[in-house]
Amino acid sequence: LRLRRVLLLGEGNFSFSAALCGAQGTHVVATCYESEEEAAGRGGAARSIRRLRDSGAEVVFSVDCTKLKEHFLPGKREFDRIYFNFPHCGRKAGVVKNRQLLARFFHSCSEVLAQEGEVHVALCNGQGGTPADQPRREWHNSWQIVAVAAAAGFILSDVHPFKAETICGYKCTGYRSQDKSFCVEGALNHVFTRGTAPLCFTPMSCKTQLGSRKVSFQVPQVLVDKINRGFLEVNSSHPVRTIKEKLSAGLSQAFPLQNISSCLPLLHQGHPDGVCHSNIFWITLSPEEAPSTEKTSQGLENTDLFSHFGQDTDKNVQEGCSIPKQFYLRPSLLPHAQAIIKKGAFSPGTLQVLSGPVFRKCRITPHSMPVFHEMLVVLAVSRGTESSCIQMLVDNIKTTVNSLHQGISGIKPNISLQEATSCGTELSDFAAFEWQLGEIQHFLCVGTDPDPSGSCVGVIRTAPDELKSRELVVVSASLNLDLLAMLLCGISDWRMLWTSDQRFLRQFPEGELRLFKSFSLYPPSYVHDVSFWVPDGEEFDEVAFHTLARRVSGEMVVSIQLRDDFQQPGTGRRSLCYRVTFQSCDRALGCREAAEMQLHFREEIQQHLAVTLR
What we know:
BirA Bifunctional Protein, domain 2; Alpha-Beta Plaits; seven-stranded mixed beta sheet; transit peptide; ATP-binding; phenylalanine--tRNA ligase
C-alpha cells in the first residue's frame, strides 16, 4: 500500500512533527526555514529531530515554503497533506506582509499537493478573518486567508479549533523569531482543498429529433454546463431524482400512475401565450446536412407533441421545406400535458406524471434558477369532486415530504396550501412565472428552519375546459424538484445542485437523502458597481441584464442590487447604478478573476444592451 506523504513546514522545535511521526501508514517530511545549526539550538529541537530520524521520517532544513517545488525531486513532490502551523514573516511583520507570505505559500502548495490532498494552516485567534474567528477582526485587519487561498485555486473545506493540549509533547515556539512561546488559545486550524478547475464554456451544439430529421441547435452559453446532465435518469443518485421517485411512489399508493416523461422534446415552436418574451431562451434551428429517413419511435412521439405548438412542423420536415426558426427551450411541461390531453391519450382517473428540466431566464437570487427539474402530475376527475381530489393529492405530497424531511433532519416541516387570489409582487420568480402560464388555484409552500414561513415549491391548477367535457375536470400540480431538494437537504444555493465537484454527490450515496455539508466554507465575495445611461425612450430589460451577468461570469454572480435610479434634470436622461457581487459556492474565485469578469461584463452590456457606460 502507498504511504500517505505528510509535509510539515516552518517547524520551530519539531515537536509537532515528532507527535505525528508514529502514525501508521504515514511518511513524515519535517522541514524548517532555518539551517540545521540554528534549528537545533531551540529548546527541545535536537531531541525531536533525533526521534523523527529514528522513526524513518525525513528532516530537511533551509526550506522556503514559497518555493517548495525547488526542494523536492519530481518523484517526491506529491504530498497528501501539508501542515503550516502559525506562519509568520518574523519579528513585527504586519498583516499585509503575512498575507503576501500566505499567497506565495498557497501557490507553491498547488505544485506539490496531490489532487485530493489537504493543506492545513493553523492561525492565532482572529488572524484568519473568517466568521469562525471569535471575536472576528475587521476584514482589512485580518490575513484574509480564504481570499488569499482562492487566488491559488484552494477552497476552505473545514475549520476547527487547534487544540495544542491534545498533541503529545507539542510546544509552540517562535514568537517574533525568538525561542519564545505565544498564546494559542482560540487558535483555529484551517483545512483547504483544491477547488474544481474553471469551466471552459466553449460553444456547444445539441441534437434533437424533429419528425424524420435530426436537427441541432447551439445551446445558450449560460446553459452549456446544465444541458443533458441526466439527473433524472435511472442510474442517477442526484437528490432531485430521489425526491421525484419518492413522490411518485407515494402518489402511486393513492392513484393509478403512468409515467410519460421519457420522450418529451426540449423545444417548443411559435410564441408562448401570455409569457413575457424576455423570460424565454430563444433558439435558432439548423437542419443536419444528412437527413435521416428512418423514423424512430422517439421521433414520432416528439412530432406528435410538437404538433400542439406548430401545426405545420412535421409536414414541413417531411416535405423537405425549411424548418421554422421560431423555437425556444421549454419553460414548462404544462403544454406537453395539454397536448396529450387534447390528443385523447389520457385516461380519466389515472395520474399522469411528467418530469424533466425546464428553462427560464430570470433575475439572480439564491432561489431563482434559469433551469430546474419540474415534476408535473395531471389527473382528470369528475366535475364537482375536484376540491376533494386536490386535497387528496396535496395530503399525499405532504405525507411524502414530511417523511423525507423527518428522515433527514428529524424535524417536521411546515407544509401549507395557500389560496392564490392574486399575483402579488412578493411572489418568488418561480411562482410569478407560473402565473404567466395560466390561472393558479393554490400555492404549495414548504417551510423549514431558518424560514418556517415557507417557500413556494409548487402550484395547483384546475382546467374545466381542457377536456371539452361536461363530466370531467383536469387537475394538475407542478412541483419544483430543485427547490424541494434545497429545502429538504439544507442546500442554501441552487448552483450547488449543478456543481461538477464530486464531493456533492458523494454525500448522497445510492440516492440516500442527507443534510448537505458544504465543502466550501465562507467563500470570499467581491463587490463591484456599474452605472450607465439607458437608451432614450426604451424600457430597460433587467432580466436580460441579469442573464448577461450569468453568462459572463459562468454563474459566479450571486447578487445584483439596484443602487440608484437617476433622471438628469433638463435632458430627462435616465441613469442606473447596480451593485454586482461575485461569489462562487463550489470553487475558488480570486480577486483578480472577479475583476476581469466585471470588466468583461461592462463590455458586454454596452454591446448587447446599447447602454452608455459612465
